[in-house]
Amino acid sequence: YAGEKFKGANTEVFAFYASPITLGEAKPGTKFPGVVLIHGGGGTAFAEWAHLWAKRGYAAIAMDLSGSQPNDPIYDAKGMPVSGQANKPETRKRLPNGGPDQGHGEKFDSIGGDVSDDWPYHAAASVIRAHSLLRSFPEVDVDHTAVTGISWGGYTTCLVASLDDRFKAAVPVYGCGFLHEGESVQKPSIDKLGDRRDAWVKAYDPSSLLPRCRVPVLWVNGTNDVHYPLDSYQKSFDVVPGRKQMRIEVKMPHGHPPGWAPQEIGLFIDSFCRDGKPLAVPGKITTQGDEVQLAYTSAVPLKSATLHYTSDTGLRSKREWKNLPAQIGQGVVTAPKPTSDANTWFIALTDERGAMVTSPVQFQP
C-alpha cells in the first residue's frame, strides 16, 4: 500500500494480511474485528503474528516499517507459518520504493528540516494508513479495531493511539515515552542531538503526545526491561488521561515472541472489540498500619494476588525482586507492607483464567 513521500519520492509499504476468511475458517460475508500489528526494532512484517490473530477471529494486518519486504512465508505441515523465519535481515529485501530504514540515524539523527526523512514520522503514518486500509475491507467491523506493537512497535503504538482515535483499544508492549530520561538505552542517542534534542522530544517522544490519548490502553512490560525502564513506563502510564491498565511481569523477557505471547493482550482487546469479559481493574492503594490494601473490581473471580518488591539499587535492569502473598477479600486484597528498604513495588492480581494485571508501580524515595 502507499506510504508517505520519502525525500520527495512516492513510497510503498509491505504488509501481511490474514483473517478467518483467508484461513478458510469462515465464509465470505462474515465480519470480524480488526487489529494492526507493529513490529519492533530489527523486525519486519511477521506472517506468524498476523496468522495468530486471524486464528483468534480477527482481521489482522502486520506491516514492515523499514522499507523492506520479507521473503514469502514458509508454512509447516499444519498450514502454520514457521515461527522466526523472518528474524534475520538476510530474509528480507529492500522495496524499490521503500521508505526509510529503521536504524538510529533514521530514528534520531534526521530530526530537523523536512520530516519526510524521519523514521518516527513514517512509522506512525504507515500504521495509520494500514489502519485505514484495514477498515476499507468489507469483512472488517470498522467500529471495532485495535492496535498492538512490540518494543519500537510499542513506542509507535503510543504515538498512533495518541493520533488516531478510531482505535477502540491499544496495547504497547515494552515501548513507552520519556526516552530522554533516566536509564533508557535511547537517551544517549537523544542527548547526542545537541541543540536538536528538544525538537526530537517535542515531535517524537511519546511523552509529548500521550497526554492527548483517549484510546483505552493496556501497558505490558517487565520489571527489568533495559530498553524501556520501569520508571519511564510508569510516567508514560501516568500522563494518559483516559482509561488505562497495566501488566508488569517480573523479569519478562524482551523480544517479539515474548511480546505477543501474553494472553492479556488478546483478552484486553476482546473486551473492547468482541464483548469479552474485561481484565480485573485495580483501584487505589491504601496503607493500614503494617498492611497495604488494593481495591479492585473483576468480572472474573481472582485466584491469586501477590505483592512484588525490590530493595536493590543501581540499574533497574539488574535488580532482583522478591514477593509477598496477598489475601483476596471482597473487592480488596491485603498484603504485608514491603520491607522498609523496598524502593519499588506493585501488586499483581491474577483471575481464574490466569490473566494478570498489576497496580501502578510504587516508587519510594
What does this protein structure show overall?
This protein has 365 residues and is of the alpha/beta class. The protein has two domains: 15-276, Rossmann fold (3-Layer(aba) Sandwich), CATH 3.40.50.1820; 282-363, Immunoglobulins (Immunoglobulin-like). The protein contains nine helices and 18 strands. It has helices spanning 47-55, 104-109, 119-136, 152-163, 187-191, 197-204, 230-239, 256-260, 263-273; strands spanning 15-18, 32-38, 59-63, 68-70, 92-94, 140-150, 169-173, 217-222, 244-249, 281-288, 291-297, 302-310, 322-325, 327-328, 332-336, 344-351, 356-358, 362-363. The strands form four sheets. The chain has a seven-stranded mixed β-sheet, with helices on both faces. β10 and β11 form a beta hairpin. The protein is globular and about 65 Å long. The mean pLDDT is 97.
Throw out a few tags for this protein:
365 residues; 2 domains; globular; Rossmann fold; seven-stranded mixed beta sheet; 9 helices; Immunoglobulin-like; alpha/beta
Outline the secondary-structure elements.
Blueprint: E1 15-18, E2 32-38, H1 47-55, E3 59-63, E4 68-70, E5 92-94, H2 104-109, H3 119-136, E6 140-150, H4 152-163, E7 169-173, H5 187-191, H6 197-204, E8 217-222, H7 230-239, E9 244-249, H8 256-260, H9 263-273, E10 281-288, E11 291-297, E12 302-310, E13 322-325, E14 327-328, E15 332-336, E16 344-351, E17 356-358, E18 362-363
Parallel strand pairs: 2-3, 2-6, 6-7, 7-8, 8-9
Antiparallel strand pairs: 1-3, 4-5, 10-11, 11-15, 12-13, 12-16, 14-15, 16-17, 16-18
Helix pairs in contact: 3-4
